[in-house]
Design brief:
This protein is mainly α. It is about 50% helix and about 5% strand.
């Protein structure tokens, strides 16, 4: 655990922030609050865009967030994991999670509608059918 000393401090600070975001937005877990925090802090999205870009939840097909940049014609899919405890700071995202994200991308871009998909996922799926995506 000592090798993660500075990360432990970041984890503690971020946990407080994420707990507040989780409570304010009625999220069920810290990972969804982490998506919100990242979109707000790093992508500088406003509250409406954050709500529209978060896909995380039942039937998200492994995709926690989607951002489409109209200027660059770039579609970015996000998968977030926030460790449940400090002892998990050294863990990596497992292969199953990565494969679910790839599968989610495939379902997002497929011609057939996925059997299970939440409303936000389907909204993006319908939107990108009509968009040029270069990256």
């Amino acid at each position: 655990m000592e090798s993660f000393g500075k990360f432990t401090s970041y984890y503690d600070k971020l946990s407080v922030i994420l707990t507040k975001i989780m409570q304010e937005n009625n999220y069920l877990n810290l990972s969804k609050a982490f998506v919100h925090w990242f979109f707000e802090q790093y992508l500088k999205l406003d509250e409406q865009a954050i709500g529209e870009n978060i896909i995380d939840g039942d039937s998200d097909n492994g995709v926690d967030g989607i951002v489409y940049n109209e200027n660059s014609k770039e579609l970015i899919l996000y998968q977030f994991k926030f460790p449940a405890s400090k002892k998990n700071l050294g863990k990596q995202i497992d292969e199953t999670t990565v494969l679910k994200l790839i599968n989610g991308y495939n379902k997002l871009t497929a011609t057939r509608k996925p059997i299970k998909a939440n409303e936000n996922f389907l909204t993006y799926r319908n939107m990108i059918k009509e968009q040029d995506i270069f990256s």
